[in-house]
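Student:
Attend to each token:
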Amino acid sequence: MKNLLISIFIISSFTACKKYVKPDPVVVVPPLHNVLVLGNSITYAPANPSIGWNGSWGMAASVADSDYVHLLTARFKSMNKANELTAKNIAEFEISFDTYDFDLNLKSYRDVKPDIIIIRIGENVTRNADSVLFEKKYVALINYFTVANPKVKILAVGSVWPERDMANKVMSKYSTFISLVYLQNDLSNFSFGLFPDPSIESHPSDKGMRNISDQIWTAVQKML
């Protein structure tokens, strides 16, 4: 019995003397996001010196980093540097939705299978008499991306210009929707007096771009 107690004491002492090894910290890797923005000239406008627009980013932002797409990109990158955000101007869809060729214009963007799509259009949708057709084609646009990628999250963002109720109403029916009508209450959200051409002046100023980015980012965080 005595020998047994001595053996237990020796084993216990040896065990107690073992060096404590701190476990490796748990590394939390933020999820990757592949984001596609479908928009118009507010999203991306190539240079057009004939009207006084010399940028190659969201029209009327003072510099590229001040448009809402670049502001959103910076926010996604702050979460994970590997996040990707791609922007595509689909103003042609707004204007000619009845003849717009999805495969010709969007196949490469669809095949990447983005996990978030932000549809920020409406300004160029003026054919109010064709509301039924626009709705049909807008649904087709969404289906073009979701059929092969059913888990994709879609956020629709309406027009910053007035009298675009038809487009806003249609867009609000098929996904989470952000109205930007409130921007019209403060003309400093637009670029009046900053450019010689009225078609540029009606676009968001740096302040307006920040407000658009803020609204989208708030909605996106709820979707992640």
The radius of gyration is 26 Å.
